[in-house]
User: Fold this.
Amino acid sequence: MNVLVTGGAGFIGSNFVHYLRRERPSWKVTVLDLLTYAGNLKNIAELVEEGSVRFVKGSIADKELVDDLFKGTKFNLVFNFAAESHVDRSIHGAQVFVETNIMGTQILLDAARATGVERFVQISTDEVYGSLGPTGFFVETTPLNPTSPYAASKTGADLMVLAAVKTHGLEAVITRCSNNYGPYQFPEKLMPLFITNALEDKPLPLYGDGLNVRSWIYVEDHCAALLLCGEKGRSGEVYNIGAGADGELPNIEVTKTILSILGKSEDLIQYVADRPAHDRRYAIDYSKIKSELGWEPKISFREGVQRTVEWYKNNKEWWQSVKTGEYLKYYEMNYANR
Ligand code: NAD
Ligand code: TDX
Assistant:
């Protein structure tokens, strides 16, 4: 089995590559990644060095490179993780989100179709549904109503995948997962930003009233769901993935959990101006993937955060080496005037 993992040097992609090596050791895995600010070859370095994973540096939006790669290797399965993934960055500049998330996905879809890929998995997000009020859940038929440029670009990609299935008979599934956390997450997202800032005794900038609710899932649970969707999901279907009631928490509770595990003071919390169009609440109904494919999340929120905090405590060199250069410029720009 020949598998392509795009974005495999990023957070979820690299966790997925490690997961595949453990769960499907006979599969031949190629990673295609542009190594943007969010990509880090260190995340999969030992696998690349030992030769169990092939690494190709390049963009999914580079048609020539993608076409050559697909012609050179007959991939059975493609997992498309590659994306610009941060909502705040999409507010500051949306063009690269359109180029990578929409154009890049279309270029992959065309190459997959031309070379007879048997299954294409599009890693999408619950953000395509927009925001919930105080009650209710996202189901797979919830109308698409993205609010950020990031979410709009992921929605565009989803629609191109569905069009490729309907028009051209490509075998593809779409997964829509909630907020992931765990090892190797770039420290611009809430969980790693707040853990690493707390470790440095720096303020934790909480947007708005801190009561926006997210559904937090440990990354390994997401990886297990993705492999199942790749192997057994029905083509043309969407599968929601989430952690259920245990992981649904307002940001202030997530923040307090991090601080209590680290033994740090809540005085580090700093309320700052809200994100524009900040979605109020996400909650996932994952009964479809549970009943069709038998998937359920295994790791509780408390356990997942403990594991994650431990990882950041033990891997200071990893995050200190990325909290430099471009990151500091971005941080200053995003947080200075809040
Ligand atoms: P990430 O930003 O950590 O990683 C993205 C990876 O894609 C990086 O390695 C980057 O170098 C690579 N990349 C970016 N542009 C590229 C291009 N043009 N060509 C090739 N590679 C490129 O993102 P993540 O959090 O790991 O998210 C992975 C996927 O999962 C994304 O598609 C995202 O939309 C989706 N998702 C993320 C979450 C979450 O909570 N993080 C939740 C649901 C869905
Ligand atoms: O500094 C911050 N302060 C803050 O209060 C940051 C970075 C975030 N927040 C809030 C905004 C959100 O309500 O925390 C919540 C989580 O924010 P992010 O980590 O930026 O995630 P979110 O905007 O919910 O989007 C994430 O989940 C879905 C990922 O970034 C996406 O890639 C994924 O698709």
